[in-house]
Design brief:
This protein is globular. It has nine helices and 17 strands. The model has no long low-confidence stretch (mean pLDDT 94). It is of the alpha/beta class and 313 residues long. It is 24% helix and 26% strand.
Amino acid sequence: MKIVLLGTSSAVPTLTRGLSSTALVREGEIFLFDCGEGTQLQIMRSDIKRSRIHSIFIGHLHGDHLYGIAGLISTLNLDGREDPLNVFGPEGLRTFLNAAFRTGDLQFKFNLTVRELPRGFKGRVLDESEFYVEALPLDHSIFCLGWRFQEKDRPGIFNLERAIELGIPRGPMYRKLQHGENVTLEDGRLITADQVVGPKRSGKSFAYCLDTQFSERSIELAHECTALVHETTFGQDEVDMARDRKHSTMEDAARVAKEAGVTTLIATHFSSRYDGRQVAQIADEARKIFEPITIGRDLLEIEATIDLQFKLL
């Protein structure tokens, strides 16, 4: 699992920060969270293949999170895309897209499914064999959804040496044991799966909380997540503005990360009033609450290792 930050600015772009968009890369498939203006240019600057976009998730309908989606989908159509595309977001998203596509008389060559989620929605929006995605309302100035991408538990590691010691023949029995089934050998011995397969391995998880002020719902969504991408629009110098506009400070995000028990916090969505040096200072203060904070920057890649730790690429 790899996280690619495509845009880390809030409200308006800067010369060094694009508008909100984050890509999650898993097994070659791309899951795009928010799609601010300029997102497809950032995709072109990254190693991401837009043809591999599986689904797009729009948290709310403020322009800095939304205005790039019509252009991106239009480009996918020009590419000759044939695979279906899922788009999820709040009510009103379909109206926005229809207006854009009707104006340009766009005729789709692929199946575009837009699912609008009503105010207060809570639950799974996507459920596949190896993962699921769920949504939960956050606390912003308009209806806003946070997202959690969760890998399902994987089978334990198969102990080949032990299987050979027990005289289990290679082939179908190995597959059955790996899937938790018991088998009976020709000599009548019953071999249980736990004799040769280790405990189930927890799947990695990713939570995305943009935009929101500090909220118990963010903590619930990010509970024991591998990685939490959380907005950190303001520093403590602008805490009153953060409360007024229902945004978070870096310290708010650190509190969410600590109380949720996440492995790492990835800070993003910085106000244009802060330069990189100021953001670093704000993060240093927030680390007194929660230490493992990664300061986001455009095109930064962060990969989850096997032991659920993270490394910057």
